Amino acid sequence: ITFESIPGGTPAIVTDETERGYVGAQEGDLVLAWGPGTGFPLGDVDYSGEGATTNFVATINKAGSYEVNFVFYDINGQKRLNGENETVTITVKDPSVPSTYKFSYTIPAEITENEEVAIDVTFATDEKGDFGYDKVRFKFAATGPEGATVTFKATDSNEVEHSFTNKGYWGPADGFDILAEYIATTDWTLVFSKAGQYTITFSLIDADTEEVIAGITDSATVEVAPAAEPAIIADPGVSPSTEEPISGEVAFTFGFKSATGNLQELELDIYLGENAGENRNYANHLGINLPAGSDAVEGWVDEVVEGYSTLDSKFHGLLAAAGYDTSVEADANKETLKSNIFYTAGDNGAGTWTIKLDTAVLEEEAIEFLVAVRDDEGAQWGNNNFVTYPDDVQAFLYNVTLDYFEFNEETKTIIGYHGSGEVVVIPSKINGVDVETIGDYAFGECVSLTSITIPNSVTTIGDEAFSGCTNLTSITIPNSVTSIGEEAFEDCTGLTSVTFQETSKVTSIGDYAFYGCTGLTSITIPNSVTSIGEDVFWVCTGLHSINVDPSNTAYSSDDGVLYNNDKTTLVTYPAGKTGNSFTIPN
Prior knowledge:
By secondary structure, the protein is mostly beta strands. The strands form 13 sheets. The chain has a seven-stranded mixed beta sheet. It has a five-stranded antiparallel beta sheet with strand order 9-10-16-12-13, with no helix packed on it. Strands 11, 14, 15, 17 and 18 form a five-stranded antiparallel beta sheet that branches. The chain is elongated, with a radius of gyration of 48 Å.
Protein backbone atom coordinates (compact mmCIF):
# COMPACT_ATOMS: atom_id res chain seq x y z
CA ILE A 1 0.00 0.00 0.00
CA THR A 2 1.53 3.29 -1.07
CA PHE A 3 0.24 6.66 0.18
CA GLU A 4 0.67 9.81 -1.83
CA SER A 5 1.71 13.13 -0.35
CA ILE A 6 -1.18 15.43 0.55
CA PRO A 7 -1.43 18.85 2.24
CA GLY A 8 0.03 18.34 5.66
CA GLY A 9 2.49 15.68 4.59
CA THR A 10 2.51 11.95 4.00
CA PRO A 11 1.40 9.33 6.51
CA ALA A 12 4.48 7.87 8.18
CA ILE A 13 5.06 4.13 8.48
CA VAL A 14 5.41 3.23 12.14
CA THR A 15 8.08 0.71 13.00
CA ASP A 16 8.55 1.55 16.66
CA GLU A 17 7.15 -1.33 18.64
CA THR A 18 5.86 1.00 21.41
CA GLU A 19 3.89 3.05 18.96
CA ARG A 20 2.66 -0.10 17.17
CA GLY A 21 1.50 -1.26 20.56
CA TYR A 22 -0.75 1.77 20.87
CA VAL A 23 -3.03 0.23 18.25
CA GLY A 24 -2.50 -3.40 19.15
CA ALA A 25 -0.75 -4.16 15.82
CA GLN A 26 0.26 -7.72 15.02
CA GLU A 27 3.31 -8.83 13.09
CA GLY A 28 2.82 -8.02 9.41
CA ASP A 29 0.23 -5.28 10.04
CA LEU A 30 0.88 -1.94 8.43
CA VAL A 31 0.71 0.93 10.95
CA LEU A 32 0.61 4.53 9.75
CA ALA A 33 0.76 7.70 11.81
CA TRP A 34 -0.74 11.06 10.90
CA GLY A 35 0.36 14.17 12.77
CA PRO A 36 3.61 15.27 14.40
CA GLY A 37 5.53 12.63 16.26
CA THR A 38 5.14 14.59 19.50
CA GLY A 39 1.41 14.99 18.95
CA PHE A 40 -0.71 18.07 18.54
CA PRO A 41 -3.14 19.85 20.88
CA LEU A 42 -6.82 19.39 20.31
CA GLY A 43 -7.47 22.93 21.45
CA ASP A 44 -6.05 24.37 18.29
CA VAL A 45 -8.98 23.12 16.22
CA ASP A 46 -12.71 23.40 16.75
CA TYR A 47 -13.92 19.82 16.46
CA SER A 48 -17.52 20.64 17.19
CA GLY A 49 -19.96 20.36 14.37
CA GLU A 50 -18.50 18.63 11.29
CA GLY A 51 -15.08 18.19 12.82
CA ALA A 52 -11.92 17.88 10.67
CA THR A 53 -11.60 15.77 7.47
CA THR A 54 -8.39 14.50 5.91
CA ASN A 55 -8.46 13.01 2.36
CA PHE A 56 -5.82 10.30 2.10
CA VAL A 57 -4.82 8.96 -1.37
CA ALA A 58 -3.40 5.42 -1.52
CA THR A 59 -2.56 2.80 -4.15
CA ILE A 60 -3.15 -0.84 -3.25
CA ASN A 61 -1.28 -3.23 -5.57
CA LYS A 62 -3.03 -6.49 -4.72
CA ALA A 63 -6.69 -7.45 -4.90
CA GLY A 64 -8.37 -8.62 -1.70
CA SER A 65 -10.06 -7.44 1.50
CA TYR A 66 -8.33 -5.05 3.84
CA GLU A 67 -9.47 -4.05 7.38
CA VAL A 68 -8.49 -0.57 8.56
CA ASN A 69 -8.59 0.21 12.33
CA PHE A 70 -8.65 3.92 13.19
CA VAL A 71 -7.09 4.88 16.57
CA PHE A 72 -7.07 8.43 17.99
CA TYR A 73 -4.40 8.27 20.72
CA ASP A 74 -3.41 10.45 23.63
CA ILE A 75 0.37 10.22 23.73
CA ASN A 76 0.74 11.77 27.16
CA GLY A 77 -2.11 9.91 28.76
CA GLN A 78 -1.34 6.80 26.70
CA LYS A 79 -4.91 6.00 26.07
CA ARG A 80 -7.26 5.62 23.15
CA LEU A 81 -9.67 8.49 22.74
CA ASN A 82 -12.04 6.95 20.16
CA GLY A 83 -14.20 3.83 20.23
CA GLU A 84 -12.79 0.31 19.92
CA ASN A 85 -14.75 -0.65 16.84
CA GLU A 86 -14.05 2.25 14.57
CA THR A 87 -12.92 0.06 11.62
CA VAL A 88 -13.68 -0.11 7.92
CA THR A 89 -13.23 -2.97 5.41
CA ILE A 90 -11.87 -2.07 1.97
CA THR A 91 -12.38 -4.55 -0.91
CA VAL A 92 -9.89 -4.26 -3.78
CA LYS A 93 -10.85 -5.82 -7.10
CA ASP A 94 -8.59 -7.05 -9.94
CA PRO A 95 -8.24 -4.80 -12.98
CA SER A 96 -10.79 -5.44 -15.77
CA VAL A 97 -10.55 -8.98 -17.32
CA PRO A 98 -11.89 -10.55 -20.52
CA SER A 99 -14.66 -13.06 -20.53
CA THR A 100 -13.82 -16.74 -20.96
CA TYR A 101 -15.58 -18.83 -23.60
CA LYS A 102 -16.11 -22.47 -24.50
CA PHE A 103 -17.28 -24.70 -27.35
CA SER A 104 -20.04 -27.21 -26.80
CA TYR A 105 -21.39 -29.89 -29.16
CA THR A 106 -22.92 -33.33 -29.22
CA ILE A 107 -21.36 -36.07 -31.38
CA PRO A 108 -23.94 -38.60 -32.62
CA ALA A 109 -23.42 -42.11 -31.34
CA GLU A 110 -23.62 -43.62 -34.84
CA ILE A 111 -21.78 -42.08 -37.77
CA THR A 112 -21.28 -43.92 -41.07
CA GLU A 113 -18.67 -43.25 -43.72
CA ASN A 114 -19.79 -41.24 -46.76
CA GLU A 115 -23.06 -40.28 -45.11
CA GLU A 116 -24.00 -36.77 -43.98
CA VAL A 117 -24.13 -36.20 -40.23
CA ALA A 118 -25.38 -33.07 -38.40
CA ILE A 119 -23.19 -31.68 -35.61
CA ASP A 120 -24.29 -28.41 -34.03
CA VAL A 121 -21.44 -26.41 -32.49
CA THR A 122 -22.19 -23.71 -29.91
CA PHE A 123 -19.70 -21.04 -28.83
CA ALA A 124 -20.69 -19.16 -25.69
CA THR A 125 -19.44 -17.19 -22.71
CA ASP A 126 -18.25 -19.44 -19.91
CA GLU A 127 -17.37 -16.80 -17.28
CA LYS A 128 -18.32 -13.24 -18.04
CA GLY A 129 -15.57 -10.66 -17.75
CA ASP A 130 -15.36 -6.97 -18.51
CA PHE A 131 -14.88 -7.28 -22.27
CA GLY A 132 -14.70 -9.71 -25.24
CA TYR A 133 -12.40 -9.82 -28.28
CA ASP A 134 -12.15 -7.98 -31.59
CA LYS A 135 -11.37 -9.33 -35.08
CA VAL A 136 -11.69 -13.05 -34.42
CA ARG A 137 -12.57 -16.12 -36.52
CA PHE A 138 -13.27 -19.77 -35.85
CA LYS A 139 -10.88 -22.37 -37.21
CA PHE A 140 -11.82 -26.03 -37.75
CA ALA A 141 -9.38 -28.86 -38.50
CA ALA A 142 -9.84 -32.61 -38.88
CA THR A 143 -7.43 -35.55 -38.96
CA GLY A 144 -8.27 -39.20 -39.50
CA PRO A 145 -7.24 -42.42 -41.24
CA GLU A 146 -4.64 -42.17 -43.98
CA GLY A 147 -6.12 -40.72 -47.14
CA ALA A 148 -9.43 -39.89 -45.43
CA THR A 149 -11.22 -36.57 -45.79
CA VAL A 150 -13.80 -34.68 -43.76
CA THR A 151 -16.09 -32.26 -45.57
CA PHE A 152 -17.58 -29.42 -43.49
CA LYS A 153 -20.65 -27.56 -44.70
CA ALA A 154 -22.77 -24.82 -43.07
CA THR A 155 -25.04 -21.91 -44.04
CA ASP A 156 -24.47 -18.41 -42.67
CA SER A 157 -27.04 -15.82 -41.56
CA ASN A 158 -27.30 -14.55 -45.14
CA GLU A 159 -28.31 -18.05 -46.34
CA VAL A 160 -24.96 -18.49 -48.10
CA GLU A 161 -23.56 -22.03 -47.94
CA HIS A 162 -19.88 -22.48 -47.14
CA SER A 163 -17.87 -25.71 -47.31
CA PHE A 164 -14.29 -26.88 -46.96
CA THR A 165 -12.37 -30.14 -46.63
CA ASN A 166 -10.25 -31.12 -43.62
CA LYS A 167 -9.41 -27.54 -42.59
CA GLY A 168 -11.18 -24.21 -42.87
CA TYR A 169 -12.54 -21.08 -41.23
CA TRP A 170 -15.88 -19.67 -40.14
CA GLY A 171 -16.46 -15.94 -40.21
CA PRO A 172 -15.34 -13.11 -42.55
CA ALA A 173 -11.69 -12.99 -43.53
CA ASP A 174 -11.13 -9.73 -41.62
CA GLY A 175 -12.78 -11.16 -38.51
CA PHE A 176 -15.69 -10.14 -36.32
CA ASP A 177 -16.15 -8.99 -32.71
CA ILE A 178 -17.50 -11.02 -29.81
CA LEU A 179 -18.97 -9.33 -26.77
CA ALA A 180 -18.34 -10.19 -23.15
CA GLU A 181 -21.73 -11.89 -23.12
CA TYR A 182 -21.89 -14.03 -26.28
CA ILE A 183 -23.59 -17.15 -27.61
CA ALA A 184 -23.97 -18.49 -31.16
CA THR A 185 -24.72 -21.91 -32.63
CA THR A 186 -23.74 -23.09 -36.11
CA ASP A 187 -25.43 -26.10 -37.65
CA TRP A 188 -22.68 -28.07 -39.39
CA THR A 189 -23.10 -30.98 -41.79
CA LEU A 190 -20.06 -33.26 -41.99
CA VAL A 191 -19.16 -36.17 -44.28
CA PHE A 192 -16.39 -38.60 -43.32
CA SER A 193 -14.90 -40.41 -46.34
CA LYS A 194 -13.60 -43.52 -44.53
CA ALA A 195 -14.36 -45.58 -41.50
CA GLY A 196 -12.07 -45.06 -38.52
CA GLN A 197 -11.23 -42.59 -35.76
CA TYR A 198 -11.06 -38.86 -36.40
CA THR A 199 -10.11 -35.84 -34.31
CA ILE A 200 -11.86 -32.51 -34.92
CA THR A 201 -10.35 -29.38 -33.39
CA PHE A 202 -12.28 -26.12 -32.84
CA SER A 203 -10.34 -22.92 -32.12
CA LEU A 204 -10.96 -19.18 -31.65
CA ILE A 205 -8.20 -17.40 -33.55
CA ASP A 206 -6.98 -13.89 -34.28
CA ALA A 207 -8.12 -13.05 -37.83
CA ASP A 208 -4.79 -11.40 -38.65
CA THR A 209 -2.21 -13.69 -37.03
CA GLU A 210 -4.26 -16.94 -36.85
CA GLU A 211 -2.93 -17.44 -33.33
CA VAL A 212 -5.28 -19.15 -30.88
CA ILE A 213 -6.76 -16.58 -28.53
CA ALA A 214 -6.35 -17.18 -24.79
CA GLY A 215 -6.03 -20.95 -25.35
CA ILE A 216 -9.68 -21.14 -26.40
CA THR A 217 -9.68 -24.46 -28.28
CA ASP A 218 -11.32 -27.85 -27.97
CA SER A 219 -11.03 -31.27 -29.65
CA ALA A 220 -13.58 -33.99 -30.26
CA THR A 221 -12.93 -37.65 -31.06
CA VAL A 222 -15.27 -39.13 -33.63
CA GLU A 223 -15.70 -42.83 -34.42
CA VAL A 224 -16.93 -43.53 -37.95
CA ALA A 225 -18.34 -46.93 -38.89
CA PRO A 226 -17.99 -48.55 -42.33
CA ALA A 227 -20.97 -48.31 -44.61
CA ALA A 228 -23.22 -51.32 -44.89
CA GLU A 229 -22.38 -52.84 -48.25
CA PRO A 230 -25.26 -53.77 -50.50
CA ALA A 231 -23.03 -56.41 -52.07
CA ILE A 232 -20.78 -58.96 -50.40
CA ILE A 233 -17.95 -60.84 -52.04
CA ALA A 234 -19.08 -64.45 -52.16
CA ASP A 235 -17.33 -67.70 -52.99
CA PRO A 236 -15.34 -68.06 -55.25
CA GLY A 237 -14.89 -64.31 -54.90
CA VAL A 238 -12.68 -62.22 -57.13
CA SER A 239 -9.90 -64.33 -58.55
CA PRO A 240 -7.22 -65.28 -59.40
CA SER A 241 -4.94 -64.02 -56.63
CA THR A 242 -3.06 -60.80 -57.26
CA GLU A 243 -0.01 -62.00 -55.31
CA GLU A 244 1.76 -63.59 -58.28
CA PRO A 245 1.85 -62.69 -61.98
CA ILE A 246 -0.39 -64.84 -64.15
CA SER A 247 -0.11 -66.05 -67.72
CA GLY A 248 -1.82 -68.19 -70.30
CA GLU A 249 -5.54 -68.87 -70.26
CA VAL A 250 -7.02 -67.43 -67.06
CA ALA A 251 -10.55 -67.54 -65.66
CA PHE A 252 -11.33 -64.23 -63.93
CA THR A 253 -14.22 -64.67 -61.49
CA PHE A 254 -16.37 -62.04 -59.81
CA GLY A 255 -18.49 -63.67 -57.12
CA PHE A 256 -20.98 -61.52 -55.18
CA LYS A 257 -24.12 -61.69 -53.10
CA SER A 258 -26.59 -58.84 -52.59
CA ALA A 259 -27.42 -57.86 -49.02
CA THR A 260 -30.50 -55.89 -50.03
CA GLY A 261 -32.05 -57.67 -53.00
CA ASN A 262 -31.08 -59.74 -56.05
CA LEU A 263 -27.94 -59.23 -58.12
CA GLN A 264 -28.73 -57.29 -61.27
CA GLU A 265 -25.54 -56.12 -62.98
CA LEU A 266 -21.76 -56.25 -62.87
CA GLU A 267 -20.00 -53.15 -64.16
CA LEU A 268 -16.37 -53.54 -65.12
CA ASP A 269 -14.04 -50.75 -66.16
CA ILE A 270 -11.00 -52.46 -67.64
CA TYR A 271 -7.58 -50.86 -67.91
CA LEU A 272 -4.68 -52.54 -69.70
CA GLY A 273 -0.91 -52.28 -69.63
CA GLU A 274 0.53 -48.82 -69.05
CA ASN A 275 -3.00 -47.44 -68.70
CA ALA A 276 -3.42 -49.31 -65.40
CA GLY A 277 -2.64 -48.08 -61.90
CA GLU A 278 -1.34 -44.56 -61.32
CA ASN A 279 -1.14 -43.88 -65.05
CA ARG A 280 -4.79 -44.75 -65.56
CA ASN A 281 -6.54 -42.59 -68.14
CA TYR A 282 -10.29 -42.91 -67.94
CA ALA A 283 -10.65 -41.99 -71.61
CA ASN A 284 -8.70 -45.11 -72.60
CA HIS A 285 -10.59 -47.64 -70.52
CA LEU A 286 -12.92 -50.38 -71.74
CA GLY A 287 -16.26 -50.57 -69.98
CA ILE A 288 -18.63 -53.54 -70.02
CA ASN A 289 -21.86 -54.16 -68.14
CA LEU A 290 -22.77 -57.80 -67.63
CA PRO A 291 -26.31 -58.65 -66.48
CA ALA A 292 -26.98 -61.24 -63.79
CA GLY A 293 -28.36 -64.63 -64.84
CA SER A 294 -26.97 -67.20 -67.27
CA ASP A 295 -29.60 -66.54 -69.94
CA ALA A 296 -29.07 -62.80 -69.63
CA VAL A 297 -25.31 -63.13 -70.14
CA GLU A 298 -25.86 -65.37 -73.16
CA GLY A 299 -28.17 -62.71 -74.55
CA TRP A 300 -25.46 -60.13 -73.95
CA VAL A 301 -22.97 -62.29 -75.90
CA ASP A 302 -25.42 -62.56 -78.81
CA GLU A 303 -25.76 -58.78 -78.95
CA VAL A 304 -21.99 -58.26 -78.78
CA VAL A 305 -21.30 -60.67 -81.65
CA GLU A 306 -24.06 -59.20 -83.79
CA GLY A 307 -22.75 -55.70 -83.16
CA TYR A 308 -19.05 -56.59 -83.45
CA SER A 309 -18.41 -54.23 -86.36
CA THR A 310 -19.56 -51.24 -84.29
CA LEU A 311 -17.20 -51.93 -81.40
CA ASP A 312 -13.83 -50.21 -81.00
CA SER A 313 -10.40 -51.82 -81.15
CA LYS A 314 -10.11 -52.16 -77.37
CA PHE A 315 -13.29 -54.24 -77.30
CA HIS A 316 -12.06 -56.30 -80.26
CA GLY A 317 -8.84 -57.04 -78.37
CA LEU A 318 -10.71 -58.22 -75.29
CA LEU A 319 -13.05 -60.41 -77.34
CA ALA A 320 -10.06 -61.93 -79.16
CA ALA A 321 -8.59 -62.87 -75.78
CA ALA A 322 -11.96 -64.45 -74.94
CA GLY A 323 -11.80 -66.57 -78.13
CA TYR A 324 -13.44 -64.44 -80.82
CA ASP A 325 -12.12 -65.44 -84.24
CA THR A 326 -12.74 -63.11 -87.16
CA SER A 327 -12.28 -65.97 -89.62
CA VAL A 328 -15.30 -67.97 -88.47
CA GLU A 329 -19.04 -67.43 -88.62
CA ALA A 330 -21.03 -65.50 -86.03
CA ASP A 331 -22.69 -68.60 -84.57
CA ALA A 332 -19.31 -70.21 -83.93
CA ASN A 333 -18.11 -67.08 -82.15
CA LYS A 334 -21.27 -66.96 -80.06
CA GLU A 335 -20.71 -70.53 -78.94
CA THR A 336 -17.06 -69.84 -78.10
CA LEU A 337 -17.76 -66.65 -76.18
CA LYS A 338 -20.61 -68.24 -74.21
CA SER A 339 -18.19 -70.89 -73.01
CA ASN A 340 -15.75 -68.20 -71.85
CA ILE A 341 -18.12 -65.47 -70.58
CA PHE A 342 -20.92 -66.77 -68.37
CA TYR A 343 -22.86 -66.43 -65.12
CA THR A 344 -23.29 -69.11 -62.47
CA ALA A 345 -26.02 -68.81 -59.86
CA GLY A 346 -25.02 -69.71 -56.31
CA ASP A 347 -26.83 -70.37 -53.07
CA ASN A 348 -28.93 -67.78 -51.25
CA GLY A 349 -28.88 -65.22 -54.05
CA ALA A 350 -25.15 -65.35 -54.71
CA GLY A 351 -23.82 -65.34 -58.25
CA THR A 352 -20.53 -65.41 -60.12
CA TRP A 353 -19.58 -63.84 -63.41
CA THR A 354 -16.68 -65.61 -65.14
CA ILE A 355 -14.56 -64.21 -67.96
CA LYS A 356 -11.93 -66.52 -69.44
CA LEU A 357 -9.13 -64.71 -71.24
CA ASP A 358 -5.97 -65.84 -73.01
CA THR A 359 -3.56 -63.31 -71.53
CA ALA A 360 -1.03 -64.00 -74.29
CA VAL A 361 -3.50 -62.55 -76.78
CA LEU A 362 -3.82 -59.36 -74.74
CA GLU A 363 -0.06 -58.78 -74.99
CA GLU A 364 -0.16 -56.48 -71.96
CA GLU A 365 1.83 -56.37 -68.74
CA ALA A 366 -1.18 -55.75 -66.49
CA ILE A 367 -4.94 -55.87 -66.44
CA GLU A 368 -6.97 -53.91 -63.94
CA PHE A 369 -10.67 -54.08 -63.15
CA LEU A 370 -12.66 -51.42 -61.37
CA VAL A 371 -15.67 -53.35 -60.13
CA ALA A 372 -19.15 -52.13 -59.26
CA VAL A 373 -22.21 -54.29 -58.50
CA ARG A 374 -25.88 -53.32 -58.54
CA ASP A 375 -29.00 -55.09 -57.35
CA ASP A 376 -32.69 -54.85 -58.19
CA GLU A 377 -33.36 -52.68 -55.13
CA GLY A 378 -31.27 -49.86 -56.52
CA ALA A 379 -28.33 -50.49 -54.20
CA GLN A 380 -24.85 -50.12 -55.66
CA TRP A 381 -21.55 -51.38 -54.31
CA GLY A 382 -18.64 -49.36 -55.65
CA ASN A 383 -18.53 -46.42 -58.02
CA ASN A 384 -16.33 -46.51 -61.09
CA ASN A 385 -16.46 -42.78 -61.74
CA PHE A 386 -13.44 -40.86 -60.49
CA VAL A 387 -11.46 -37.71 -61.17
CA THR A 388 -8.04 -38.47 -59.72
CA TYR A 389 -6.31 -41.74 -58.86
CA PRO A 390 -6.31 -43.19 -56.26
CA ASP A 391 -8.09 -40.76 -53.92
CA ASP A 392 -11.36 -40.58 -55.84
CA VAL A 393 -11.61 -44.27 -56.67
CA GLN A 394 -14.50 -45.76 -54.71
CA ALA A 395 -14.84 -49.00 -56.65
CA PHE A 396 -13.36 -52.38 -55.80
CA LEU A 397 -9.88 -52.22 -57.36
CA TYR A 398 -8.54 -55.49 -58.75
CA ASN A 399 -5.13 -55.23 -60.39
CA VAL A 400 -3.32 -58.28 -61.80
CA THR A 401 0.14 -58.38 -63.27
CA LEU A 402 0.24 -60.37 -66.51
CA ASP A 403 3.05 -62.29 -68.09
CA TYR A 404 2.84 -62.17 -71.85
CA PHE A 405 4.84 -63.25 -74.84
CA GLU A 406 5.78 -61.23 -77.88
CA PHE A 407 4.94 -63.51 -80.75
CA ASN A 408 5.60 -63.38 -84.48
CA GLU A 409 2.75 -65.28 -86.05
CA GLU A 410 4.43 -65.50 -89.45
CA THR A 411 7.57 -67.19 -88.15
CA LYS A 412 5.71 -68.85 -85.24
CA THR A 413 8.40 -67.50 -82.94
CA ILE A 414 8.30 -66.13 -79.40
CA ILE A 415 10.56 -63.10 -79.70
CA GLY A 416 10.16 -61.73 -76.15
CA TYR A 417 8.73 -62.29 -72.72
CA HIS A 418 7.33 -59.61 -70.43
CA GLY A 419 6.68 -60.51 -66.85
CA SER A 420 8.17 -61.27 -63.47
CA GLY A 421 6.73 -64.70 -62.85
CA GLU A 422 8.80 -67.43 -61.26
CA VAL A 423 7.02 -70.37 -62.88
CA VAL A 424 6.21 -69.80 -66.54
CA VAL A 425 4.36 -72.10 -68.90
CA ILE A 426 4.83 -71.38 -72.59
CA PRO A 427 1.56 -72.03 -74.44
CA SER A 428 1.56 -74.38 -77.40
CA LYS A 429 -0.56 -71.87 -79.36
CA ILE A 430 -0.85 -68.09 -79.35
CA ASN A 431 -3.77 -66.55 -81.21
CA GLY A 432 -4.45 -70.00 -82.59
CA VAL A 433 -0.96 -70.28 -84.11
CA ASP A 434 1.46 -73.05 -83.09
CA VAL A 435 4.51 -71.90 -81.11
CA GLU A 436 7.47 -73.55 -82.89
CA THR A 437 10.50 -71.43 -81.99
CA ILE A 438 11.80 -69.74 -78.87
CA GLY A 439 13.64 -66.85 -80.46
CA ASP A 440 17.06 -65.41 -79.78
CA TYR A 441 17.26 -63.86 -76.29
CA ALA A 442 13.50 -64.29 -75.85
CA PHE A 443 13.88 -64.92 -72.09
CA GLY A 444 17.33 -63.34 -71.69
CA GLU A 445 18.08 -61.98 -68.19
CA CYS A 446 14.70 -63.07 -66.77
CA VAL A 447 16.19 -63.34 -63.30
CA SER A 448 12.82 -64.01 -61.62
CA LEU A 449 12.36 -67.21 -63.63
CA THR A 450 12.80 -70.42 -61.62
CA SER A 451 10.95 -72.91 -63.82
CA ILE A 452 9.95 -72.94 -67.47
CA THR A 453 7.71 -75.41 -69.27
CA ILE A 454 8.30 -75.74 -72.99
CA PRO A 455 5.42 -77.23 -75.01
CA ASN A 456 5.78 -80.12 -77.46
CA SER A 457 5.10 -77.74 -80.34
CA VAL A 458 8.55 -76.11 -80.02
CA THR A 459 11.24 -77.37 -82.40
CA THR A 460 13.95 -74.75 -81.97
CA ILE A 461 15.51 -73.03 -78.95
CA GLY A 462 17.31 -69.95 -80.28
CA ASP A 463 20.65 -68.38 -79.45
CA GLU A 464 20.82 -66.97 -75.90
CA ALA A 465 17.13 -67.84 -75.48
CA PHE A 466 17.52 -68.25 -71.70
CA SER A 467 20.93 -66.68 -71.11
CA GLY A 468 21.36 -64.96 -67.77
CA CYS A 469 18.33 -66.62 -66.15
CA THR A 470 20.33 -67.00 -62.96
CA ASN A 471 17.48 -68.40 -60.86
CA LEU A 472 16.29 -70.99 -63.36
CA THR A 473 16.78 -74.31 -61.56
CA SER A 474 15.62 -76.93 -64.03
CA ILE A 475 14.73 -77.35 -67.68
CA THR A 476 13.07 -80.18 -69.55
CA ILE A 477 13.67 -80.30 -73.30
CA PRO A 478 10.58 -81.81 -74.94
CA ASN A 479 10.98 -84.46 -77.65
CA SER A 480 9.77 -81.99 -80.28
CA VAL A 481 12.95 -79.85 -80.04
CA THR A 482 15.57 -80.55 -82.71
CA SER A 483 18.15 -77.83 -82.03
CA ILE A 484 19.52 -75.82 -79.10
CA GLY A 485 21.16 -72.55 -80.14
CA GLU A 486 24.45 -71.00 -79.17
CA GLU A 487 24.67 -69.78 -75.57
CA ALA A 488 21.05 -70.83 -75.11
CA PHE A 489 21.52 -71.33 -71.35
CA GLU A 490 24.69 -69.31 -70.83
CA ASP A 491 25.26 -68.14 -67.23
CA CYS A 492 22.19 -69.94 -65.86
CA THR A 493 24.13 -70.31 -62.63
CA GLY A 494 21.19 -71.76 -60.67
CA LEU A 495 20.52 -74.51 -63.22
CA THR A 496 20.97 -77.92 -61.56
CA SER A 497 18.93 -80.20 -63.83
CA VAL A 498 18.69 -80.53 -67.63
CA THR A 499 16.41 -83.32 -68.79
CA PHE A 500 15.86 -84.52 -72.35
CA GLN A 501 12.57 -86.36 -72.79
CA GLU A 502 12.61 -89.90 -74.03
CA THR A 503 12.62 -90.21 -77.81
CA SER A 504 14.37 -86.82 -77.89
CA LYS A 505 14.87 -85.42 -81.39
CA VAL A 506 17.61 -82.92 -80.52
CA THR A 507 20.34 -83.20 -83.14
CA SER A 508 22.50 -80.19 -82.38
CA ILE A 509 23.65 -78.30 -79.30
CA GLY A 510 25.24 -74.94 -80.20
CA ASP A 511 28.50 -73.38 -79.06
CA TYR A 512 28.64 -72.34 -75.39
CA ALA A 513 25.06 -73.60 -74.94
CA PHE A 514 25.60 -74.27 -71.20
CA TYR A 515 28.56 -71.95 -70.66
CA GLY A 516 28.88 -70.82 -67.02
CA CYS A 517 26.15 -73.11 -65.63
CA THR A 518 28.06 -73.50 -62.41
CA GLY A 519 25.25 -75.32 -60.58
CA LEU A 520 24.99 -78.13 -63.13
CA THR A 521 26.49 -81.36 -61.78
CA SER A 522 25.60 -83.91 -64.45
CA ILE A 523 23.89 -84.20 -67.82
CA THR A 524 22.91 -87.00 -70.16
CA ILE A 525 23.19 -86.46 -73.91
CA PRO A 526 20.36 -88.26 -75.78
CA ASN A 527 20.98 -90.66 -78.66
CA SER A 528 19.63 -88.17 -81.23
CA VAL A 529 22.46 -85.62 -80.85
CA THR A 530 24.87 -85.59 -83.77
CA SER A 531 26.52 -82.21 -83.24
CA ILE A 532 27.90 -80.61 -80.08
CA GLY A 533 29.46 -77.16 -80.58
CA GLU A 534 32.57 -75.62 -79.09
CA ASP A 535 32.95 -75.14 -75.34
CA VAL A 536 29.35 -76.16 -74.65
CA PHE A 537 30.17 -76.87 -71.00
CA TRP A 538 32.94 -74.31 -70.50
CA VAL A 539 33.15 -72.86 -66.92
CA CYS A 540 30.61 -75.43 -65.66
CA THR A 541 32.68 -75.68 -62.50
CA GLY A 542 30.23 -77.97 -60.70
CA LEU A 543 29.86 -80.44 -63.60
CA HIS A 544 31.45 -83.77 -62.72
CA SER A 545 29.73 -86.12 -65.15
CA ILE A 546 28.68 -85.95 -68.82
CA ASN A 547 26.86 -89.10 -69.83
CA VAL A 548 25.77 -90.18 -73.30
CA ASP A 549 22.94 -92.52 -74.26
CA PRO A 550 24.66 -95.79 -75.27
CA SER A 551 22.76 -95.88 -78.58
CA ASN A 552 24.17 -92.51 -79.71
CA THR A 553 26.22 -93.00 -82.89
CA ALA A 554 28.14 -89.72 -82.73
CA TYR A 555 29.25 -89.45 -79.12
CA SER A 556 30.14 -91.60 -76.14
CA SER A 557 31.23 -91.18 -72.55
CA ASP A 558 33.56 -92.99 -70.23
CA ASP A 559 33.60 -92.30 -66.50
CA GLY A 560 31.72 -89.06 -67.11
CA VAL A 561 34.09 -87.76 -69.79
CA LEU A 562 32.68 -86.87 -73.22
CA TYR A 563 34.26 -88.32 -76.37
CA ASN A 564 33.29 -88.79 -79.96
CA ASN A 565 31.76 -92.17 -80.67
CA ASP A 566 34.98 -94.12 -81.31
CA LYS A 567 36.89 -92.20 -78.62
CA THR A 568 39.41 -90.78 -81.04
CA THR A 569 38.54 -87.27 -79.84
CA LEU A 570 38.16 -86.13 -76.24
CA VAL A 571 35.43 -83.51 -76.48
CA THR A 572 35.00 -82.34 -72.85
CA TYR A 573 36.57 -83.23 -69.53
CA PRO A 574 34.07 -82.01 -66.86
CA ALA A 575 35.47 -79.05 -64.90
CA GLY A 576 34.03 -80.35 -61.63
CA LYS A 577 35.32 -83.89 -61.93
CA THR A 578 37.28 -84.92 -58.87
CA GLY A 579 40.64 -86.68 -58.80
CA ASN A 580 44.20 -85.55 -59.34
CA SER A 581 45.06 -87.72 -62.32
CA PHE A 582 43.51 -88.76 -65.63
CA THR A 583 44.64 -91.19 -68.29
CA ILE A 584 43.76 -90.38 -71.87
CA PRO A 585 42.72 -93.61 -73.58
CA ASN A 586 44.45 -94.91 -76.71
